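User: Could you walk me through two proteins back to back? I'd like the raw sequence and the structure tokens for each, with a short line separating them so I can tell where one ends and the next begins.

Assistant: Of course. Protein one, sequence then structure:
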Amino acid sequence: MSNKRFEMYEYRQILSRMKLGESDRAIDNAGLMGRKKASKLRDLANKYDWLDPANTLPDDSTLNHVLKPQTSPPARESTVLPYKKDVEKWLQEGVSGTVILRALQEKHDYSGSYSSVKRFVKELKDSTPPDATVILDFDPGEAAQVDFGKGPEIVDVKTGEIISTHFFVMTLAWSRHQYAEIVRDQKLTTWLGCHRRAFEFFGGSPARIIIDNLKAAIVKACWHDPVVQRSYGECAEDYGFIISPCPPRDPKKKGIVESGVKYIKRNFLPLKTFRSLGDANQQLNEWILTVAGTRIHGTTRKPPLKIFNETECHILKKLPVNPPELAIWAKAKLHGNCHIQFEKSYYSAPYKLVRQELWLKVNENTVKIFHDHEMVAIHPRAHYPGTKATVMEHFPPQAIAYKMQDPQWCLKQADKVGSHCHDLIELLFSDKVLDNLRAAQGIVRLKTKYGSERLNAACKRALDFDNPRYRTVKTILEKSLELHDDIKEQELPKIYKGESMFCRNTSTLTN
């Protein structure tokens, strides 16, 4: 009996018997308290005149104040106490007791036992106010909670592909009726699409959506000022619901849907086989409308589907007549090649915006590019990595010229100038080593300044001297050499008779 912990009502019962005249032996025989401890209690009671028939016993608070020091031996100071700040910090970080012991040994040469650490940790935890929660009550149509959960691996029977999946679950907080879908990923497009299908499944949207801080919804998680993903914000505006993110690292605020995810995993998945992702979602939808929807819910004590059909479905907000455009907003920089990258595909934008950050609004079929709230480009949506969507007008003029004025274009322009110009351009493109596209473009553009007749004559003179280069043709035109016919064709062989091309025979020279 000496180690037994007595409650106040037991002390009061023993004191009442003593007050009626029972001896310590009688109390011991009754199994209430040992004689030694009863004797000490009697002495203490006499000290405070509790056994006087004329006095009433004090209340439990007074008894506890007097008796507790008598029953609780003075505690020894813990050997861990000097390191209390470190231990408190480690406990907040979730460090276990064994790791704390090792850390104390390494940092402070602590020589105490693990039991000492364990007792000290327990005292700290007991002195910390416990986490208390408040049950949140919701009105019909007021809120829905949304979460993702790890789904099954599905082997497609047709392709043999192993598909890793996730559960998307939206649970109405009042009726507990839920929508669930098995998806491949948790990307923004999937997140928005699941919301649309969930609202269509319910036939309306709730006033508030309670979510976790996943990246598809919240750009920056914060207790006071969370930043909502722009695309999800537009979705909320179009469907008329308020986004209510949970505080960081506090998933208890959406415990209803957390339970819903666990319920699906434990009651739908076991013993199920799926032929494909579509087959899995068909089975899941049927299960929700039959098994999950008709069960007696553990909290409401009513079938979720029944109370949804009777009440909540009539209170949800009506869906827009025309389904809103669920578009993805993304921010990206325009590269020096006048293309912006999104999901490994490339889309052009005006060259004047190179190195600037632009907004992309991407839906299923189009990609719109905005700068300062003004649309500067629109492209068809590319669905394969590496695809380029390019508008030539987005390039700088010189790049457009080089891109558009290909060899065929140059030959057509040269043909308009004359046969000599055509022959010279054709000779340039016959070079097997050097790409002469820019030289050819430059030659045909000389027509603008000098006219077709002079350009054609200049090309003839360049061909006569076997020097078909842009610089040669330009120099001839600048010096008007094409207008002088001082070198006759029949004289050319006499002049160039040396052993080298540019060496003249000395016999032809005159004093």
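----
Protein two, same layout:
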Amino acid sequence: MKRKPVIYKILNTVNGKFYIGSTGCLKQRASCHRTRLRRNRHHCSYLQNAWNKYGPEAFVFLVVEEVPSIEELPVAEDRWLQEHYGKPYCYNLSKHADAPMRGRSGELAHNFGKPVPEEMREKISQALKDFYAEDPSNHPRLGKPHNEETRRKISEKVNAALSRGGAGKYKRSPETIRKLSESQKGNSYAKGYKRTEEERKAISERMKGKTLWLGKKHSEESKLKMGKPIIVTHPDGTEKHYATITIFRAESGLLVPTVQRALKSGQPLKKGPFKGYSFRYA
């Protein structure tokens, strides 16, 4: 075989099906195909399965078009692929010579039905984050508003989620609140952890300018729910229960640091009008 640019077929002489390809040297390319097929490592699974079923003697290499130059091969191959790709008699998995995966969707896609391992997901995610961080203009959605149909679909999904008890204008049902509460009991994610000065500064910077609670106050009911009940022990041993520390402070006039220190230490106060009094959480 002479060295020249051609479009070729690998023809299955048993059923008439074929694979389309292009090359500048058919002898060399045919040898490469045969080697991979014999080793069961050909990139085209349809051709490989047929080779395994019918055997090497069922296949022949045929020149179907001579191309004037190497540079014109991709255009010529694309023309053949556009005509035959996706037909029952064509083994090719690729619709385009220069982009094998373009135009392949559903069952024709290389990894159709194959779940991506978690480790690979993390690598892909990190690679994309780095890519977008390097230049925000790399993001495919930058400056592209959603059309009305997409906005409608997003709105429907959000409203459906909210109606099931998500955040927003819909309130969670008592059953949902109970389940959330049960799931959080016993959790101690960062118990005992103290933020570094850098973390505190970073949080402070993030919160500057935010006015989520500006001008708002907790209701008395909310204060009762958030407050911790305490027990105040008189020097004579009698005890009195308070629903929250705030209620006790309002009655006694003691400052927050005084009560907090006594609660933490467990020791009675050593001076003042409440000398000898001790405090503990109920």
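The longest strand covers residues 59-66.

Let me know if you want the two compared in more detail.
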